[in-house]
Amino acid sequence: MNPVPVLVDAHAHLDDEAFDGDRSELLRQIQKAGIIVVNAGSDLESSRFSLELARNWDFVYACVGVHPHEAKKAHPGYIGELTELARDPKVVAIGEIGLDYHYDFSPREVQKEVFEKQLLLAKDLGLPVVVHCREALSDVLEILKKSGVKKGLLHCYTGTLNEARDFLDLGFYFSFGGMLTFKKAEDLRKVAKGLPKERVLVETDCPYLSPEPFRGRRNDPTRLVYVVRSLAGIWGISEEEVAEITRNNAIELFGLEC
Ligand SMILES: [Zn+2]
Q1: How confident is the model at residue 1 (pLDDT cuts 50, 70, 90)?
Q2: Were 99 and a residue from 136, 161, 179, 213 both cysteine, which residue would form a disulfide, CB within 3.0 to 4.6 Å?
Q3: Ligand 1 centroid, distance to 40 Cα (angstroms)
């Protein structure tokens, strides 16, 4: 029997090639640590892999979707393929999807179109969405409002508290990762402090964004505890309470059976 899960990593990329050398070993460690992982897809291939991981490991759940970076590569049949994948009960959200005006790896018009189509899919399937947003909060808000999608996560949130209000009104959640532990992230910690606790989740976004003291190295879900510790300090409550609150929020958002 598995140990009782205590933490939910709301956003990870265990399908990433950074884990190709030791993925199974790492998954066993995550299982032993009692951490549940919601793995995000970035394109069709990684969405398929994400679902394969979720089928093989009961504590892993999958999101399927096309990331704004990959939007320009989405071929005409991608919505059909995502629909097929999303029928699996281990798929808990459409993601990660959104807009990235920082890198602009795909033209903005293409990013918007691919984002809108996947929101429509999420609405049709009654699934929440996992949103990647970089320097595009007002467009993301406008498109989300139009879409009618009522539930989702703004992962790795870096906006202000003021900007968060509209998303709170929409019914959205926010997740924080390793950046919360960075020395210069005082503003981000203030945002985390100001948000209602019942709308906050924790994530690693691994293999990226390792928390202090591992900054710059490959991240993985076993390091989620450093984010939890940071949030416990910010909220002035225990790590166990942060674990419980963020786990319950993840269960509520994704409908996890744990
Ligand atoms: Zn991500």
Answers
A1: very low
A2: 136
A3: 6
Helix axes 137-147, 108-125, angle to 10 degrees: 40
**Do 8 and 202 meet the contact criterion of CB atoms below 8 Å apart?**
yes
Buried b (16+ CB within 10 A) or exposed e, 9-45: bbbbbbbbebbeeeeeebbeebbebebbbbbbbbbbe
Interval between CA 1 and ligand 1 midpoint (Å): 30
Residue 102 class from Cβ within 10 Å (0-12 exposed, 13-18 middle, 19+ buried)? exposed
Give the tens place of pLDDT for each residue, 147-179. Answer: 999 999 999 999 999 999 999 999 999 999 999
For residue 145, how far is its CA from the centre of ligand 1 (angstroms)? 22
- 3-state DSSP percent of the chain in helix, strand and coil, to 5: 50, 15, 35
CA of 237 to the centre of ligand 1 (A): 28
* CA dist., res. 83 & res. 63, Å (int): 12
pLDDT digits (tens, 9 = 90+) for 2-52: 444 589 999 999 999 999 999 999 999 999 999 999 999 999 999 999 999
Provide the residue ranges of all domains of the chain, joining segments of one domain with +: 7-254
Q: How far is the CA of 258 from the centre of ligand 1 (A)?
A: 23
Ligand 1 centroid distance, CA of 200 (Å): 17
Cα of 13 vs centre of ligand 1, distance in Å, is 7
- 180-to-115, 141, 147, 158, 228 alpha-carbon distances in Å: 27, 23, 30, 10, 10
Q: How far is the CA of 95 from the centre of ligand 1 (A)?
A: 9
67, 110, 232 from 73: Cα distances, Å:
10, 10, 41
